[in-house]
Structures are given as structure tokens and as C-alpha cells.
Structure prediction request, 179 residues.
Amino acid sequence: MTRVHFTSEAEMFAHKAWDTLELTPPADVDLVARKLGIDLHRQEFVPEIDGLYLKIPGCPPVIAVNSSYVKPPGRQRFTAAHEIGHHLLAKGRTVAGRVMFLDCTDTRKNSTELACDKFAALLLMPEKLIREHYQELAGNPDHRVAILAERFGVSSWAVQRRLRELGLPYKVDRFGRRY
Ligand SMILES: [Zn+2]
Prediction:
């Protein structure tokens, strides 16, 4: 499975979720999970763990997100979306058997992990909406990243990465120039 294929699939799944569930920012990850028949739980784990996805034949798929106070709400939402990505990308690919992905802070980013991150970014920050809100906040470049993070329910770091991907400048120099 090539990374390109995974990424386009991730994109397709994210678009489909927005279209069929009529989501509005911040995207309701619990609703997305519920519609997919996934049991989404929040539980405190050791700080090294972000979340996990588990599918045992004959049982509903389970996602557990680390709700420890060291994981900010935006981070937890990104993890939930990432695990939903595991569900969608694993579907139909595995022979009968259990599927488990454990995501830790140091999990190596192979093509599956990158595709799940991509899915999470697209689900939480769709290009069209990010561009619209970015434009709308043109008069407030100093606080734009923070406001976008608040509106889309993600971390400022995730917003910055998304803006970089979309080629939207978000930094302001001391002369007020954006870069
Ligand atoms: Zn993962």
C-alpha cells in the first residue's frame, strides 16, 4: 500500500464525514465515531500513551483516548480523530483477527501513521473552512492562529502545521508583514 493511496483515501473519508454528518467546526469527533459504530472512551493512561484503537472480531471497535491532564483538549481531539483514521484505513484490509494500534508520544511515523495524522487534520480542519476563517480573520493576524485553534478545537501547533500545508502565512514580523 503506497502512502499516496493512503492519503487520498484519508482525504475521501474526511470529506465524506463532513458531507454526510453535516459537521460544523469544531468537528464533533464523538458523533463521527458513533456513526461508525465505534465505542469512543476517554481514560487516564500514563503520559507516554496518546490513544489506542482496538478491533476484536465479533465486538464493536474501541477507541480509547488518554484524558490525562497533561494532554490538552485539542490534543485529545486530534488523537480521537487519528484513531478514527486507523479504523477507516484498516477496514477491509485485515484478515479475520484482531487489529490494534497503540499510539505513544514516540510512535514511529510510518505511512499508516502519517495517513491517520492526515485524516485527523482533514477531519478537524477542512481546507475550505480553514481558508474561509483565515480570510475572515485577516484584520487580526496577531491572534489568528489562537482564534482558529479555538474555533476548530485543536492546538495552535496543529493550526500552524495546517496553515503551512495550505501555504497560508501566519507569522507577522515587527513591521506587520506576514510570512
Ligand atoms: Zn496511530
About this structure: The beta strands are 39-43, 49-55, 62-66, 99-104.
